[in-house]
């Protein structure tokens, strides 16, 4: 994808070294970490390591993750990120995760950023299928994924031992042939 991806309100580009403090700060928020793989102990040093390990291209290679930072256009403050994972087991298949700082939620930014990244993956990169996996209790991401056009495809009941309890995982998905009519309709 050519960065920054620009939407009506947002600018989206890979996280850089100087984003480490802001990235760590919102990952430490309990409501942000609740259903995510990290804990509130995620430090600025953890953030710096993750950012430094960024894959070199404009998309992750098989098995890799790339964190795209989201800002208001023309702004410097980091609002959140869209994480892009290239699924190693299948060609042209990507997984996304969306995270916004608590104070920047509830404004439609997450949905706007998700739609931009979906557009880049399907239109510029010929993605075949994009998925997202989430805790079944995470209503906020479920709403964002549905607004992005993803379908709930499966539910794995109490399949994941996560943060001290068995949790149920939902998988959402969208195919290129489902995205194309949406893209031309807007
Ligand atoms: C998941 C997450 C990113 C969703 O963020 P969000 O801000 O709730 O999502 P949206 O961008 O859709 O914004 C939601 C609300 O903003 C409001 N809003 C305000 N101004 C708006 C605008 N200009 N345009 C659109 N919506 C707007 C709407 O009410 C919308 O809710 P509605 O569509 O139900 O009416 C956020 O809850 C989060 O970061 N959670 C923690 C991390 C996490 O668990 N991520 C999932 C990992 S897969």
UniProtKB/TrEMBL annotation:
<protein>
    <submittedName>
        <fullName>N-acetyltransferase</fullName>
    </submittedName>
</protein>
<dbReference type="GO" id="GO:0016747">
    <property type="term" value="F:acyltransferase activity, transferring groups other than amino-acyl groups"/>
</dbReference>
<dbReference type="Pfam" id="PF13302">
    <property type="entry name" value="Acetyltransf_3"/>
</dbReference>
<dbReference type="InterPro" id="IPR000182">
    <property type="entry name" value="GNAT_dom"/>
</dbReference>
<keyword id="KW-0808">Transferase</keyword>
<dbReference type="InterPro" id="IPR016181">
    <property type="entry name" value="Acyl_CoA_acyltransferase"/>
</dbReference>
<dbReference type="InterPro" id="IPR051531">
    <property type="entry name" value="N-acetyltransferase"/>
</dbReference>
<feature type="domain" description="N-acetyltransferase">
    <location>
        <begin position="10"/>
        <end position="181"/>
    </location>
</feature>
